Automatic annotation (TrEMBL):
Residues annotated as transmembrane: 12-29, 35-53
Keyword line: Membrane, Transmembrane, Transmembrane helix
Superkingdom classification of source: Bacteria
UniProt keyword Membrane present: yes
Entry-linked Pfam families: bPH_4
Name of the protein in question: Uncharacterized protein YyaB-like PH domain-containing protein
Domain Uncharacterized protein YyaB-like PH: 53-126
UniProt cross-references to InterPro entries, sorted A to Z: PH_YyaB-like
Organism: Flavobacterium humi
């Protein structure tokens, strides 16, 4: 049975982005279109990719789905899950993230809305996962 989890988004994180967008709009009003449009396109792309991020568990496979592509992870290869508030390397606009370590050196940062349910589902498949949240 497949279970899908949406990515958590902290909308207040979009506030720092809104200032440059306002500057871009101001630039467009002043006739400086190229830089303003490029910036709006870049920020819009980031927000769209973040919004459509989902995580699904199907059998023993965790799939991280984004508009940029999908990553499939064998849940039996997950070694550790730990909490992280790092703003580096993320698949969502949230500071409530977990860092999944799998295989020998692979890792991914995710932020499912239902974090505890997500972790419990992974533990049901692989009870040897070390949890540090």
């Amino acid at each position: 049975m497949m279970t899908e989890y949406k990515s958590k988004m902290n909308y207040w994180l979009a506030l720092p982005i809104s200032y440059p967008i306002c500057l871009s709009v101001y630039g467009m009003i002043k006739g400086e279109w190229l830089g303003a449009l490029a910036f709006v396109f870049l920020i819009g792309s980031i927000l769209i990719v973040s919004y459509f991020t989902k995580y699904s568990v199907d059998g023993a496979t965790l799939t991280v789905k984004t508009m940029a592509g999908n990553r499939k992870i064998d849940i039996r290869s997950i070694r550790k899950i730990e909490k992280t508030n790092s703003i580096v390397s993320t698949r969502a606009l949230s500071l409530n993230r977990i860092w999944i370590h799998y295989n020998k050196y692979d890792e991914i940062v995710v932020s499912p809305k239902e974090r505890q349910d997500f972790i419990d589902r992974l533990l049901a498949i692989n009870p040897t996962i070390e949890i540090k949240v």
